[in-house]
Write a structure and sequence with these properties.
This protein has 149 residues and is mainly alpha-helical. The chain has two domains: 75 residues, no CATH class; 72 residues, no CATH class. The chain has eleven helices and no strands. α1 packs parallel to α4, α4 packs parallel to α6 and α8 runs parallel beside α10.
Length: 149
Amino acid sequence: MKTENWNDKDFVLQEIKKYNCYALEYASEELRCDKEFVLEAVKQYGWHFRYASEELRNDKEFVLEAVKQDRYALAFVNKELQNDKEFVLEAVKRHGWALEYVNEELKNDIEVCEEAMLQKWEAIRYIGEEVKKTIKELLREFITNKINN
């Protein structure tokens, strides 16, 4: 395959659609720095985000747009962003299942978990043990109050 093809947006998008998560890896650096192009690739399959340029993977606003397209994007950002509570709150507001790629400390943060579940209730599967414990206690208390009243 010709090297110049990997700098052609249409060609690379066609390859992405055909082969899913590997084509962006071979795209030119120019394409992997192109915000619009990378977002289109991420729409096809979130794992493409791992091949975005480092600059894009560290750009908070761009990462949030990518997470909105597919939660997997959060798996490929730097640890600093994954540990940033404000950033993570914004990410889970855009895609609740992004909670899967959050560190354990933030999975045990009730505010982060609440936002994730408000966006997509199924995110409950990714909440931390401390939050699960809190939810169980609240349910027990609620049921006890209902029974006693």
